[in-house]
Amino acid sequence: AIARVKRAGLFRTQGLIGGKWMDAYDGKTFEVYNPATGEVLANVACMGKQEANDAIASAHAAFTSWSKLTTTERSKLMRKWYDLLIAHQTELGQLITLEQGKPVAEGYNEVLIGADCLEFFLEEVKRCYGDIIPQTQADRRMFVLKQPVGVVGAITPWNLPLAMAFRKVTPAMACGCTVVMKPSELTPLSALAAAELALQAGIPPGVFNVVMGIAPEIGDAFLASPKVRAITFTGSTAVGKMLLAGAAQTVKKTSMELGGNAPSMIFDDADLEVTVKGLMIVKFFNCGQTCISPNRILVQEGIHDKFAAALTKAVQSLRVGHGFDEGVTQGPLINQAALHKIEALVEDAVSQGAKVLVGGKRHSLGLTFYEPTVIVDVTSDMLISSTEIFGPVLALQRFKTEEEAIHLANDSDAGLAGYIYTENLRRCWRVAEAIEFGIVGVNDGLIPEASAPFGGFKQSGLGREGSKYGLDDFLEIKYLCLGNM
Ligand code: ADP
């Protein structure tokens, strides 16, 4: 797979600044690993403050002309980028699997998630209207203009290294902003490949820059620079809070996609088949390593045992292995830290009375492979209920009444995704309105779409990605008043 990516010219290990591939100024590199084998995949330029500042300067210089292009001109260039992504779906998908570990079918699908987002925004920006405000004075005319905010600093995570980058970069670029992006150091390669394709598409130098290496230095350079007008981040709540505090120095716009602690609420009147299918698809997507992954499986007493049995059966049919092996549905976890965290959470739950129905330990493949797991008799005071698991563990907790389920669901600082399974229309509406989550799925699993808003309530974040609202984080609103007409 690596040979194929290299032949296509998509195996990039340098940063991209002002349209040029650059080494770190001091020549340093860091290693990127294949989590499925533990082998070093690449030595990547280890950049810091200076490179970040130069990338910001390039983006700032490019903003003048990029923001002045018409939406048609920008969209045409971005359409070429889209076509190149689709043409290289195989190489990009394989590269994602190499650096992140997911089954290659998920890698291919991730390219489409990114491409969908790109297509949505290159189209949506043509409908990004301002307003004409009805007159309040005879000699006055009032308008609202929407203008790109300027240089955007984007910091992205390792779980969907290509798709998460596209969710940020494409709305920003479509509306005329220029971008400096810092991918996760665990998985920089697919974003670098995508940047190469942006160059090939003719997107002008400096519009999309990529730097990576010393994350806090690069982050601080974004925060300190008055030229960077917006920060968009997906990652942990702890880092998000630091970035929010830092953005105050220069009063930037901020959009934050932070941690979740998603409840799945399964009521006695749920359709068992629909529920198991929905839960499995979203829980085991990316081996449970997403912020919308159901974390607290709240199950009503009447359906509990039947549901736990059906779920256990479904979990037993999953196949753990290397992402390139036929039939594999679950890859490795991203690193040892993730493995240790999950082990500690399961151990804590079991020590307090939870029972393992299936899994509950490391997989015989070694490294960071963990067995898909179902545990029952979980309670709210266990660590696993208040911590984002980010792995293939289903933790089932019983409840008696709808009120209790709503209380349990809302009893969290996080408010990203929530799922409801019921065949009762009234209940579905009541519960959907009552829960404090930005994304609510009813009788369904993997619900994010480029055309739908994605974002959290409470400490899960600020702003929305995808949909018409996804442009707002990159636009300034200008009130224009013509007087004495
Ligand atoms: P996770 O726990 O999912 O790895 P992180 O929040 O640590 O989440 O990482 C998400 C992104 O934030 C990555 O690109 C990472 O390099 C970056 N990051 C981590 N710490 C900092 C920091 N101090 N400043 C800026 N970016 C950071």
Automatic annotation (TrEMBL):
<dbReference type="InterPro" id="IPR029510">
    <property type="entry name" value="Ald_DH_CS_GLU"/>
</dbReference>
<dbReference type="GO" id="GO:0004777">
    <property type="term" value="F:succinate-semialdehyde dehydrogenase (NAD+) activity"/>
</dbReference>
<keyword id="KW-0560">Oxidoreductase</keyword>
<dbReference type="GO" id="GO:0005759">
    <property type="term" value="C:mitochondrial matrix"/>
</dbReference>
<protein>
    <recommendedName>
        <fullName>Succinate-semialdehyde dehydrogenase, mitochondrial</fullName>
        <ecNumber>1.2.1.24</ecNumber>
    </recommendedName>
</protein>
<dbReference type="InterPro" id="IPR016161">
    <property type="entry name" value="Ald_DH/histidinol_DH"/>
</dbReference>
<comment type="similarity">
    <text>Belongs to the aldehyde dehydrogenase family.</text>
</comment>
<dbReference type="InterPro" id="IPR050740">
    <property type="entry name" value="Aldehyde_DH_Superfamily"/>
</dbReference>
<dbReference type="InterPro" id="IPR016163">
    <property type="entry name" value="Ald_DH_C"/>
</dbReference>
<comment type="pathway">
    <text>Amino-acid degradation; 4-aminobutanoate degradation.</text>
</comment>
<feature type="domain" description="Aldehyde dehydrogenase">
    <location>
        <begin position="21"/>
        <end position="479"/>
    </location>
</feature>
<dbReference type="InterPro" id="IPR015590">
    <property type="entry name" value="Aldehyde_DH_dom"/>
</dbReference>
<dbReference type="InterPro" id="IPR016162">
    <property type="entry name" value="Ald_DH_N"/>
</dbReference>
<feature type="active site">
    <location>
        <position position="257"/>
    </location>
</feature>
<dbReference type="GO" id="GO:0009450">
    <property type="term" value="P:gamma-aminobutyric acid catabolic process"/>
</dbReference>
<dbReference type="Pfam" id="PF00171">
    <property type="entry name" value="Aldedh"/>
</dbReference>
